[in-house]
Amino acid sequence: MSFTDKSLQCADCGVTFTFTAEEQEFHQSKGFTNEPRRCQSCRQARKSQRNSFGSGGSRYDRQMFPAVCAECGIDTQVPFEPREDRPVYCSSCYNKTKGNSRW
Ligand SMILES: [Zn+2]
Ligand SMILES: [Zn+2]
What we know:
The protein has helices at 21-29, 40-54, 57-61, 91-101; strands at residues 6-9, 16-19, 65-68, 75-78. By secondary structure, it is of the alpha+beta class. The site of one zinc ion has 8 residues, from helix 4.
């Protein structure tokens, strides 16, 4: 099967872009059946967006609360609001506790 360059319209910005024969071939080799819906620059923009979300970005955006470790007394941060009726541990003490008492 041979491919020919195709003109497609970007679903995002409406620009007409070329879905080249090589890209079509690459596409098919990956098992994709749908034509790309976005031009190169919109695809790139989406990709970098997804990367900043996907590579742990949202994880580090999570709010951290300052706390004092109930075990060794060092200042630490926990991903939840510390409550007075619950001891808070730094990560190393938490791991120790977890290992000992099988929480
Ligand atoms: Zn576009
Ligand atoms: Zn500790």
